[in-house]
Design a protein that fits this description.
single chain, alpha/beta, 6-stranded mixed beta sheet, two-stranded antiparallel sheet, 6 helices, 8 strands
């Protein structure tokens, strides 16, 4: 439930703790994952915060699946972390080091909300961003952070709107 001054999340998280690469490949074979990812134009990875083994899954995908994907395919990988502040700084740094590795076979985009971008900025030693999304200073701050993350695009969304730093442009 989302309100103008925050949101309330309801749900049980214990089943998400059991999701692992081994469990995934018992349900969907690596061969099938290679086929599905090879055919996909858009691959979305969501809820890294609650899926405690998702970084391990990413490592295995990068090692076992990614090198076998078709070379001649334009694809996008979109990541939504879902409140990384709930994880340790070490976990978050490790994840941020994994994201650019997906660029070998895709364009990588990271979608975050305002509190998540502040957290990531702090994690990378950046000062607090300006409050106004539409300012040139915010655009410069966001572009610099995108370059530090080594991703193709960084999208910030909030109740006031959204701003994206993609390739060399800000929109």
């Amino acid at each position: 439930l989302e309100f103008s001054d925050g949101k309330l999340l309801l749900g049980h998280t214990s089943p998400m703790e059991a999701v692992t690469y081994q469990g995934l490949t018992e349900v969907i074979s690596e061969t099938n994952l290679i086929s599905q990812f090879s055919q996909s134009d858009l691959i979305c990875f969501q809820n890294w915060t609650m899926l405690l083994h998702l970084s391990e899954i990413f490592e295995n995908i990068l090692e076992n699946i990614w090198p076998k994907l078709s070379e001649n395919k334009e694809r996008i990988c979109f990541f939504d972390l879902a409140d990384p502040a709930k994880r340790t700084y070490e976990d978050c740094r490790h994840l941020l080091e994994l994201l650019p590795k997906f660029q070998s076979k895709s364009h990588v985009y990271l979608g975050v909300n305002r509190s998540e971008i502040r957290f990531i900025g702090k994690l990378l030693g950046k000062p607090e961003p300006p409050n106004q999304l539409e300012t040139e200073s915010y655009a410069g701050w966001l572009k610099d952070l995108k370059e530090r993350l080594q991703v193709n695009g960084l999208i910030v969304h909030c109740s006031e709107g959204a701003v994206a730093a993609c390739n060399k442009e800000i929109a």
